[in-house]
Design a protein that fits this description.
The chain is an alpha+beta fold. It has one domain (41-363). The protein contains ten helices and 16 strands. The protein has helices at 23-28, 106-109, 114-117, 177-180, 182-189, 235-246, 249-253, 267-275, 309-320, 356-359; strands spanning 19-21, 36-38, 97-98, 124-126, 134-136, 152-154, 160-170, 203-210, 218-227, 256-264, 282-283, 289-294, 298-304, 326-333, 345-352, 360-363. The strands form four sheets. A six-stranded mixed beta sheet has the order 3-4-15-14-10-11. Strands 12-13-8-9-7-16 form a six-stranded mixed beta sheet. Strand 12 (289-294) and strand 13 (298-304) form a beta hairpin.
């Protein structure tokens, strides 16, 4: 039983030939009306996700005062427990492909040739290593009089691995990916509930919500993470997560931290985002309306971008230039007590030069993917 409720889909289906408001136009100029464009389901590639066994573990980290920071094999959107491939459904495809971190070395080493070298990696993602991000060390609270940067340390590996990344679109209101998107709901329910003493849930869903004004139409930028089979849950992480899990929504809002970092982008984008404070770590619940859903084996966290003018402005800048941008998105719990330090990233992803319209998955009124 989930601790938060969500609406049940009413029967019915969408006409695959129907029009919908352009995702990009909606986010750039939400008050100017909508320009209609055809459903993009035909653009969704059969490229799918890599199984956990073929992926390399990786991570990311940061602090509220930090300034941060190819295998092309076919596979499925969701990974499967080895030897149990037939037990767990793997049905949702994506246009994005996973690439190894070392395949992107040219960003730092061949900056004058990025535009040429990045072509094979368009519409891809990877997971940046945790060592790239500095987080609060164990002495951060007790030695706060010193230079705070000296009290930060590279993060240990993130316990969660990305297994699904998509943009879901529905003409009807959606509140919760774990309930309102059919493929995700079936996938999660095919796994057993977490044991009562389990430190972290099997799955972590982190989603951005985007809605045009005065409309039920909904976009979810959805990240589905799975707890790594060999994840080491140390005491500080377990302490921070236990407090987070037991807290009210208001208390959770004071712990959940987000860090955005531009890796590659036109200079005008970098300066605009930095001018708006877009690369400063933030306690996301203090800036965006954030909703939490606790299920039998998952935690879902939904952040409403439209609830903040600054977030909407940053989003607009990024989305206007998204095909020329590579950026890191990371999440962690802020260590606010000594027994919660050092901090450690929960999850991370790097988006590489993504055409958002190419990867959008259109859903009917029942949350099922529209296929032409």
């Amino acid at each position: 039983m989930q601790t938060s409720t969500s609406t049940t889909r009413s029967p019915g289906s969408e006409d695959p030939t129907s029009k919908k408001q352009s995702f990009m136009k909606m986010l750039w100029k939400p008050t100017l009306g909508s320009k209609q464009s055809p459903v993009r389901s035909e653009n969704i590639s059969s490229q799918s996700w890599l199984n956990e066994s073929t992926r390399t573990d990786a991570t990311v980290n940061s602090d509220e005062q930090d300034s941060v920071g190819c295998s092309d094999q076919p596979d499925e959107f969701f990974d499967a427990v080895q030897g149990e491939e037939n037990k767990y459904p793997m049905t949702l495809s994506s246009a994005l492909k996973f690439v190894q971190m070392n395949d992107l070395d040219f960003i730092a080493n061949q900056s004058d040739k990025i535009s040429e070298l990045k072509m094979p990696f368009l519409n891809s993602y990877t997971e940046p290593p945790a060592s790239l991000f500095q987080v609060r060390g164990k002495d951060y609270l007790t030695k706060s009089g010193k230079n705070m940067k000296d009290l930060k340390v590279p993060s240990d590996d993130a316990p969660y691995q990305l297994i699904g990344l998509n943009v879901f679109h529905s003409k009807t209101a959606m509140k919760q990916v774990s309930n309102d998107v059919g493929d995700v709901r079936r996938y999660l329910s095919s796994f057993p509930p977490d044991a009562p003493n389990k430190a972290l849930p099997q799955f972590l869903l982190i989603n951005w919500i985007m809605r045009p004004l005065f409309s039920r139409e909904t976009w979810f930028v959805s990240h589905v993470y799975k707890l790594r089979s060999k994840a080491i849950i140390d005491a500080p992480l377990e302490n921070a997560f236990n407090r987070f899990k037991a807290g009210t929504s208001e208390e959770k809002n004071t712990q959940f931290k987000y860090i955005f970092k531009i890796v590659d982008a036109p200079r005008v984008v970098q300066s605009s985002v930095k001018g708006l404070g877009g690369e400063r770590p933030v306690i996301i619940g203090k800036n965006l309306t954030t909703t939490y859903y606790q299920g039998p084996n998952f935690l879902e966290i939904n952040m409403d971008v439209s609830s903040s003018r600054i977030a909407s402005a940053i989003n607009s800048i990024i989305l206007k230039n998204v095909q020329n941008v590579s950026c890191d998105l990371t999440w962690l719990l802020e260590g606010q007590k000594e027994d919660e330090l050092p901090e450690r990233l929960l999850a991370a992803v790097r988006w590489n030069w993504v055409n958002v319209e190419d990867i959008t998955v259109d859903l009917d009124s029942n949350g099922e993917r529209i296929v032409q």
